[in-house]
């Protein structure tokens, strides 16, 4: 899975908009474990994307951190 990116979407503060941060696979799995340890089911999203300017395409797996666990 060479073209699979891992990341988290989070809100750092109420004034700032949604942010996306790339994570290593290990950090991604640890964030899932942190959610589960708190009794929360992480919301995961999978996307396939193509960037036409440079011909790059890939896949992205994202945790939507609506509880602020990543930022805390």
Structure, explained:
The protein is α+β, with helices and mostly antiparallel strands and 72 residues long. It has one helix at residues 25-37; strands at residues 4-10, 19-23, 43-51, 56-64. It has a four-stranded mixed beta sheet, covered by helices on one side. The protein is globular, with a radius of gyration of 13 Å. The chain starts with a strand and ends in an 8-residue tail after the last strand. The mean pLDDT is 84.
Radius of gyration: 13 Å
Net shape: globular
Major sheet characteristics: 4 strands, mixed
Fraction of residues in helix: 10-25%
Give the DSSP E fraction (strand runs of 2 or more residues). 35-45%
Tell me the number of strands: 4
Would you tell me the structural class of the helices and strands?
alpha+beta
Mean pLDDT rating: 84
- Widest sheet: strand ordering: 2-1-4-3
The helix/strand order is EEHEE
Question: Helix tally?
Answer: 1
End-to-end CA span? 30 Å
Low-confidence stretches are: none
Which features characterize this protein?
four-stranded mixed β-sheet, 72 residues
Summarize the structure.
With 72 residues, the protein is an alpha+beta fold.
Task: Write the SSE topology.
Elements: E1 4-10, E2 19-23, H1 25-37, E3 43-51, E4 56-64
Parallel strand pairs: 1-4
Antiparallel strand pairs: 1-2, 3-4
